[in-house]
Design goal:
Layout lengths: L3 H14 L1 H5 L3 H6 L2 H30 L4 H27 L8 H11 L8 H20 L1 E3 L5 E3 H11 L3 H36 L5 H9 L4 H31 L27 H4 L10 H7 L4 H14 L7 H6 L16 E4 L6 E4 L6 H20 L12 H15 L2 H6 L10 H15 L7 H4 L4 H9 L9 H5 L6 H24 L15 H12 L6 H9 L7 H21 L20 E3 L2 E3 L1 H42 L7 E3 L2 E3 L1 H20 L14
Antiparallel strand pairs: 1-2, 3-4, 5-6, 7-8
Helix pairs in contact: 1-5, 4-5, 5-6, 5-7, 7-9, 8-9, 9-21, 11-23, 11-26, 14-16, 16-17, 16-24, 17-23, 19-26, 23-24, 23-26, 24-25, 27-28
Bound molecules: 2-acetamido-2-deoxy-beta-D-glucopyranose (5 copies) and zinc ion.
């Protein structure tokens, strides 16, 4: 059986494997793969990629807005074509000798092209991978939970609504468990296989695991430490928020449901995926006598329609002097779940078809403030598409994945401000006193900050891979530790990374834009609506796409080249102060005492050394000791070889010269004939050598590659 994946890998490694070939006498090839040629090559890529990607996106859009077997087939077919295309360019991109190139963006483009992603899989496995993905999406979109033979509910919007509005614990558990039974267990084996293939593709691309792939997308070596640092800084806010919510829910549901020493049960958090807890605001409102105005109710009272929600969010962008959505956007977007019984995938997303201003949003919208804000977020993606569309296609993506998410979210920060909602007539009370402000900030916190505990893994997602990972994994609750079993290679905190980074970035952007717009006063009161200066600042950063390393884009936008958590803390400081006081009065233990927070992943940072779990530094030391021992041993062996050799020679000459009684030699304390001794000693030496060269099974390859 041929292994196309393997031969591909060899080709990809060509540069690395045969460096000598590159240096010596290759003038003809040098000329062929020089910078001029690279530019022509990239132009060619640009033109063809537009067509290939467009066709793929078209069939995908067609499929997700009209789920049928036929449409799925078409999409899978185009996906295979796209993969072939990526292999074609990926392999060629490896051949250029970037070391001598002058233009940095040619360098970057070629590097990006070399990561061919899942296309690195052998063809049959690639096909399987795509099919698994499509099948999971299909199951997910069509699954329903039935009350009885006639009444069945699908996730969006019915079940989500139950999760959001019901305060009946039996009903909540029914919806939560019902959905997981309908989807989770059915999809589980598919998902495991899918993860296997994903990991394989990652490794074929030359990354150790998904984590390494993720870090490479950020082009920043210190990403992991940075994230850990953010988490430490965010800890006070997290712990206090979590503790407070715990108590508030305890008050409402009682001690038999809420164990103050355990996590908050997943079905009581107001959301199927515990992504946001804003739906249970009424249960955890800090000042319960000052009930905030119900914006959703006001919207319904004013007969808002989905079109108006889109138009309003577009108006926000144009008020900043940013670009309006192109006419085709309105034709192609799917704003509501179709009423003609057609199956669709409701998961909210924005797509870019890379050709002729063809952008769109898919959403099964309801008239609620949450959905309005989520449209603002999606319109942020559309704005990014519009701004970078003139770039070479390979740079048509966000500066990094978290940046992309932060762009939409920064607008929602302004749009959800009291000032803005008042302006567009969704609030009527002009004045906000300090108690209202704490209530308001609690709302934003529940919306933005996911309340973590032991189940953190399920809470965070952004990119499609993580979407699926988080949607489908560990969904059959009675299986303990299922998450770990799934893909030990994929370090979870990188997925949390996108979420954290985008959380921190959006507040950093917000502060910058507010400053530019001339806002005075507390950060949470800022609304950048109408500020052309803020709009210009944002637009200029978006225009760069991913053509520059993201710290440069960040610097351009904010004046700082590092991600900084200060703005987020400034924003929430009134809330944090209140929470600290309140929690102190309750005399609570902060956090989730019986659940170690898996974000820290203390365990997985351990390295196995001689079957012991040690932390990397200890293990490193151990290996140095082993190495030193090994070195000493080799010297000893070498010495022994020399000595044995000379001894043998000696005894041989003795043998031939005199027929005297044989002198006794000793081998391991046993007296025997010198020749025999020599033979055995040679054998022993040989054994030592074999043992030294062959790595014993307990010393794995991991030890030198932890990061
Ligand atoms: C690249 O190679 C071509 C011939 O294939 C040659 O005409 C051109 O001058 C070379 N360019 C550079 C920058 O060396
Ligand atoms: C959905 O796709 C099928 C083909 O699989 C097509 O016949 C049908 O017209 C499409 N429906 C809509 C509403 O586009
Ligand atoms: C392009 O990349 C190579 C190797 O990664 C590097 O040596 C070279 O300096 C880069 N050129 C530019 C202009 O950055
Ligand atoms: C199914 O449940 C719905 C909602 O509870 C109810 O209105 C309907 O009458 C039930 N139908 C049957 C056949 O039991
Ligand atoms: C893209 O190029 C067109 C034509 O040159 C120009 O009109 C448009 O303003 C550019 N778009 C952006 C976002 O720069
Ligand atoms: Zn998004």
């Amino acid at each position: 059986q041929t292994r196309p994946g393997l031969s591909l890998l060899v080709l990809l490694c060509y540069r690395q494997l045969l460096p000598c070939l590159w240096i010596k006498d290759e003038h003809s090839l040098d000329d062929f793969y020089n910078e001029t040629k690279a530019k022509i090559f990239l132009q060619f890529y640009d033109q063809t990629a537009k067509v290939v990607l467009n066709q793929f996106m078209e069939t995908t859009r067609n499929y997700v807005t009209n789920i049928t077997r036929k449409n799925q087939e078409e999409m899978l077919h185009k996906d295979m074509e796209r993969s072939q295309f990526m292999i074609y360019f990926g392999i060629r991109a490896c051949l250029f000798k970037v070391a001598q190139f002058q233009a940095q963006d040619v360098n970057r483009t070629l590097r990006k092209l070399q990561n061919i992603d899942k296309a690195a899989l052998p063809k049959d496995e690639l096909r399987e991978y795509n099919e698994l993905l499509a099948d999971m999406e299909m199951t997910y979109s069509m699954a329903q939970v039935c009350l009885n033979e006639t009444a069945c509910l699908s996730l969006e919007p019915e079940l989500e609504e139950v999760m959001a509005t019901s305060r009946n614990k039996e009903e909540l558990l029914w919806a939560w468990q019902g959905w997981r039974d309908a989807v989770g267990c059915q999809i589980r084996t598919t998902f495991e296989h899918y993860v296997e293939l994903s990991n394989k593709a990652t490794q074929l691309n030359g990354y150790k695991d998904m984590g390494a792939l993720w870090r490479s997308k950020y082009e920043l070596d210190t990403l992991k430490q940075d994230l850990e640092w953010f988490f430490q800084e965010l800890r006070p806010l997290y712990l206090n928020l979590h503790t407070y919510m715990h108590w508030a829910l305890h008050r409402h549901y009682g001690p038999e449901l809420i164990d103050l020493r355990g996590p908050i049960p997943a079905h009581l958090r107001g959301n199927m995926w515990a992504q946001s807890s804003v739906n249970i605001l009424d249960l955890v409102l800090p000042f319960s006598k000052k009930i905030p105005e119900d914006v959703t109710k006001i919207m319904k009272g004013q007969h808002w329609k989905s079109e108006k929600m889109f138009e309003d969010s577009e108006k926000f962008f144009t008020s900043l002097g940013l670009l309006p959505a192109p006419p085709s956007f309105w034709k192609k977007s799917m704003l509501m779940r179709p009423t003609d019984g057609q199956e669709v995938e409701c998961h909210t997303s924005a797509w870019n078809s890379y050709l002729d201003d063809d952008f769109g949003i898919k959403k099964c919208m309801e008239v609620t403030i949450e959905d309005l804000l989520s449209i603002f977020h999606e319109m942020g993606h559309i704005q990014y598409f519009l701004q970078y569309k003139n770039l070479s296609i390979i740079f048509c993506e966000g500066a990094n994945p978290a940046f992309e998410e932060a762009v939409g979210s920064v607008i929602t920060l302004s749009a959800s401000s009291h000032k803005h909602l008042l302006n567009i007539g969704l609030l009527s009370l002009k004045h906000q006193d300090s108690e209202d402000e704490v209530n308001f900030l609690m709302r934003i916190a529940l919306e933005k900050i996911k309340i973590f505990d032991g189940t953190i893994r399920k809470d965070i997602y952004n990119q499609e891979w993580w979407n699926l990972r988080l949607k489908y994994q560990g969904l059959c609750p009675p299986v303990p530790h299922s998450e770990e079993d799934f893909d030990p290679g994929a370090k979870f905190h990188i997925s949390a990374g996108v979420y954290f980074l985008s959380l921190v970035l959006q507040f950093q952007f917000h502060e910058t834009l507010c400053k530019a717009s001339g806002h005075m006063g507390p950060l949470h009161q800022c609304d950048i609506y109408n500020s052309k200066i803020a709009g210009k600042l944002l637009g200029d950063a978006l225009k760069l796409g991913s053509s520059k390393p993201w710290p440069e884009v960040l610097k351009m936008l904010t004046g700082e080249s590092e991600v900084c958590i200060k703005a987020l803390m400034t924003y929430f400081i009134p809330l944090l102060n209140w929470l600290v006081t309140d929690n102190m009065q309750q005399g609570d233990i902060l956090g989730w005492p019986d659940f170690s927070c898996s974000f820290e992943e203390k365990d997985t940072d351990k390295v196995t050394f001689l079957n012991l779990k040690l932390d990397p530094n200890q293990a490193k030391f151990g290996y140095w000791v082993l190495l030193a021992l090994g070195f000493v041993m080799s010297l000893v062996v070498l010495g022994l070889v020399c000595r044995l050799h000379s001894l043998e020679k000696q005894s041989l000459t003795q043998d031939t010269e005199i027929f005297s009684p044989l002198p006794n030699a000793y081998f391991l304390g046993i007296a025997m004939e010198p020749r025999q001794t020599a033979k055995r000693q040679w054998m022993l030496l040989g054994l030592c050598l074999v043992l030294m060269l062959r790595t014993p099974p307990w010393v794995r390859a991991e030890w030198w590659s932890w990061d």
